Amino acid sequence: MRRYRERGVAGGVGMAKIxxxxxxxxxxxxxxxxxxxAACHRLGFAGVRSVRQGKRFEVEFDGETDxxxxxxxxxxxxxxxxxIEEFSIRRG
Amino acid sequence: MRRYRERGVAGGVGMAKIxxxxxxxxxxxxxxxxxxxAACHRLGFAGVRSVRQGKRFEVEFDGETDxxxxxxxxxxxxxxxxxIEEFSIRRG
Amino acid sequence: MTADSxxxxxxxxxxxxxxxxxxxxNAEYALIISQLGRRPTESELAxxxxxxxxxCSYKSSRKHLRQFGEKAPPSAALLAGxxxxxxxxxxxxxxxxxxxxxxxxxxxYVEPFQGAATGVGGIVRDILAMGARPVAILDxxxxxxxxxxxxRRVLPGVVAGISFYGNCLGLPNIGGELAFDxxxxxxPLVNALCVGxxxxxxxxxxxxxxxxxxxxxxxxxxxPDGIGGASVLASATFGAPSESGNGHLAKRPSxxxxxxxxxxxxxxCCLELYAAELIEGIQDLGAAGIAxxxxxxxxxxxxxxRVTLDDVPLRDPSLTPAEILMSESQERMMAVVTPASVxxxxxxxxxxxxxxxxxxxxxxDGTLTMTWRGRTVVSIPPRTAADGPVYQRPMARPADLDSxxxxxxxxxxxxxxxxxLRATLLALLGxxxxxxxxWVTAQYDHYVRGSTVLAMPEDGGLLRVDEQTQLGIAxxxxxxxxxxxxxxxxxxxxxxGEAYRNVAMTGATPVAVTNCLNFGSPxxxxxxxxxxxxxxxLADGCAALGIPVTGGNVSLYNQTGDNAIHPTPVIxxxxxxxxxxxxxxxxxxxxxAQVVLLGATREEFGGSAWAHVxxxxxxxxxxxxxxxxxxTLATLMAAAxxxxxxxxxxxLSTGGLxxxxxxxxxxxxxxxxxxxxxxxxxxxxxxxxxxxxxxxTPGREDEFAALCASHGVPATPLxxxxxxxLTVEAAFEVPLDELRQxxxxxxxxxxx
Amino acid sequence: MARxxxxxTFPGSLDDVDAARAVRLAGGVAVPLWHAExxxxxxxxxxxxxxxxxxxxxxxxxxxxxSPVMTALRQAARAGLPLLGICNGFxxxxxxxxxxxxxxxxxxxxxxxxxxxxxxxxxATPWTAKFTExxxxxxVLKSGEGAYLADLATIGELESxxxxxxxxxxxxxxxxxxxxxxxxxxxxxxxxxMPHPEHAMEALTGAGxxxxxxxxxxxxxxxxx
Lengths: 92, 92, 752, 225
Ligand SMILES: Nc1ncnc2c1ncn2[C@@H]1O[C@H](COP(=O)(O)OP(=O)(O)O)[C@@H](O)[C@H]1O
Ligand SMILES: [Mg+2]
What we know:
The complex is a heterotetramer, with 2 copies of chain A (92 residues), 1 copy of chain C (752 residues) and 1 copy of chain D (225 residues).
Chain A lengths: L14 E10 L6 H12 L5 E15 L4 H13 L5 E7 L1
Antiparallel strand pairs in A: 1-2, 1-3
Chain C lengths: L5 H6 L14 H11 L5 H10 L2 H4 L4 H9 L7 E3 L6 E6 L2 E9 L1 H6 L1 H18 L3 E11 L5 H21 L3 E8 L8 E11 L14 E6 L8 H11 L2 H4 L15 H16 L5 E4 L4 H12 L3 E5 L12 H6 L5 E6 L4 H10 L4 E8 L4 E5 L2 E6 L1 H5 L14 H6 L11 H12 L8 H4 L10 E3 L6 E4 L7 E7 L2 H6 L1 H18 L3 E10 L6 H21 L3 E7 L3 E2 L2 E2 L3 E10 L16 E5 L10 H7 L11 H16 L3 E6 L4 H13 L3 E3 L5 H6 L6 E5 L4 H11 L3 E7 L3 E4 L3 E4 H9 L1 H6 L1
Chain D lengths: L3 E6 L6 H10 L3 E6 L10 E4 L19 H11 L4 E4 L1 H8 L6 E3 L7 E9 L15 E8 L3 E3 L2 H9 L3 E5 L11 E5 L5 E4 L18 H13 L1
Parallel strand pairs in D: 1-2, 1-3, 3-4, 4-11
Antiparallel strand pairs in D: 5-8, 6-7, 6-9, 9-10, 10-11
């Protein structure tokens, strides 16, 4: 299978790609991760101790002076659910 | 909202946390990302040019000599669908 | 870490305990001490605090709820009644049905998706615990104003949560409600009903009997979910987290996460265990988790129980014994199994990938004993926990009720001519409350299991129970907070009447009632009065209808500050259908069929949809409930359905005749032409109870008229089906397309 | 001779009851198959029913695609055994690479439960032989992840080889490319269908009887084999 490299942003000046990772808070149960871990074991990946699944967003901004700050705002408003999730932001 | 830091692995020797990021291949349409981008605009985030949504897995391995290689295997077998997705691997 | 033990409690009577932070009063704490003859251990305190909570003990409502039993009509159909996980009703042919409604209001406000999802999961386990296969769900939802920003957060999340959990579990969703009112803004109501079917002999009991029998916990692992209270306990004992370095203590989430996949496995696993007769007793784990299941199983049996808490499979090894007891981790059950059956039991669990662990044993000593790391941390008579205190709380008629009832809607501006009546119809039809609910219901699977005969938007859901005999069951839930605010007793009877009528509209015969009592704080005497009135109304209403209350649930403290929600009892009615092929539905499907109004119309606008939508007005008296008329109407419907006299049937409720006609036209994609006598506004929009609009099978008009006469049901021919307009002669005409546009566009415009 | 159609139950399968009833209504015998076993019990055809196998966690069908019964089915399909995947079954077939492409989240990101009309565009499969040419039937679409996606080369191949078995009538329903509702394998014996024909077997409890022909087709073709 093809692996991917982080791709630069195609556009020109003022363009920025920000990656927002959203994960369940560690104390919140992740049934999906548990089911995947169980599947790993059935498939013979005995060394897998735990799996947690989250979301990854690649957001392209255009003409923002502080795209990281904007992305953080966006994460709080829309991309993450503050009751059960937490997020981290970085340049893509 | 709380932001998170990458947490070290709690356990002892032989433990490793690997992050597997899975994204749709760039040539595959991402209706979810498009819907989120539209929502961003409705919410007033005018600077958002595009959003792509993928998955992020945090996998803890125990007693693997080469956990990255194991994670790549796991990604190919299970975590990503080669028909439409690609993945990348790194230490968490 | 060592835990507070019984031995330690005996020698440290003076130790301060955080009982107040756990919600126990001074008197309750003193009662625990007097019952135990010593201070409780930390783990015991955890058990009492959750078992004596309002939610588990019904301490404010129990005194009133007794009326359901006392006033109940004698019923041979009741195989298990109030006090069980859910009531069980004999529906004939060897089948029994169990059903119950439960609330998950507060969790759904905090985290709409997971709150609503786990609400479905909880009620399904209640039904499963009775020995039945869960076969369908209904959901009754109330939110703040439809256009409020917070409703846009809460409603889509709640609906997605119910859709996620119910669909993934494979249960058809066959009905429910959706209502909006400012009183629910900070206190949405999310009530879910589950119904299950079994054979007569399949009934399971929630009791731990037979010394030596093994106690097995099965399903998900126990984690730190929903134990905010226990953190109080832990931090009070170990010092504030920051000081002690016990970082985990601060991170006990109050949000429970649902795993419908695990629940599906649990359902199939338990049904296989029942079929193999491997179970002596079983209890679901809901609120108060292991504390509640052990206490109730032990209290339900003759002897006692010994539990080794170290054997409980944990998701987080740092849990204290008190936390293990209080955890509300979802998708768990507790079973009592003879030693000889344990191996076979565990084998079935392995087949379904359900983790199962022996954690204790039934004893003969009458005590619930628990050990952890070699120390005895719990030693109590189980009944003291299972039967909490009972309060007779002060009650007072709300101070504003007289003025509210005096502010009748008589003075409000009424539509005076045809165009104004037409505009009123479109305004009501396009209001969030009356509008098409497909935005919600299209997210629910109602086909799965292949037995759904009627589902949304029909009046009642109808399921086929037996493919050979065509025996079926019908269900509906109803409530009306506005009516109940104006008169809690009559309002509750109106809700009962409506649910009963909805079931009757399918052609089924109503047989049993469940209820979910959603109210504000019982510590407010005015709320207590509302609760008492509602219960009185329901008990009397059921006696009048001749059907028993078989179970229910009470949800109190639905208020923000001093603002309580409208008193909102939600009533569920179960009916039996002898032949589901003869079911009736709301749509005008036959052309040229006579349209007949059944029942009597009075000028009744207090609490009406018209007053609410057009004038934002709430005042006066609600319509008069007429349960005798409801009963004769239902008998008539059953007879007419089985004789094949009707082409359609739809009950009248909020919005009156005008809304009912519009819905029958839209549902059947066929218009009608009618004329009404007397004041057209009253004829079209009054909300008098015990009414329906039907279309008669062409050629059978006289037979039907005779049947109505013999049942003493007033029947007024209004006109005929046909065409593509809704026409009220001498008043207005609306093309169906225009009606449809008004009806269908509202919710998508609000929530897409 | 009774025609036996295997119905696989995975953990989380839901419409297995309905698929079995559909087989019975079409005159066949439904044989339950268990995900953890490789034994196909001598069946003449197999249906992978709808539902949420393994909770649809990770990706719909991904975990089920690795189960023992799928190993057996992969071999049997190569030998020509007719295989029909409905909804979750279609997703499993794609994840198991018995069919190309993938099913992804609906474009509106919500679960959809509604009646849809589909047009049968390929009658050369054992599951569609009894349809008339370009017959339109009403069945039930109920899924959260029903949007069919594949790369353009694959779509081109499916279209030109006539492997699109069914298409939604009236345009896009859920974001599927080319309004594709169902496809077939190169040999035609493996068919994946997003909407549910088993919920359209009788008017009383389903969306009419538009789904019957799928099951009548397999009865006919299996008998002819
Ligand atoms: N409003 C009510 N009307 C009648 N019975 C009720 C009502 N509320 C609770 N009950 C009954 O009290 C018992 C305990 O209720 P509950 O604690 O909700 O059960 P569970 O522990 O199974 O969740 C049940 O039998 C329930 O049916
Ligand atoms: Mg219960």
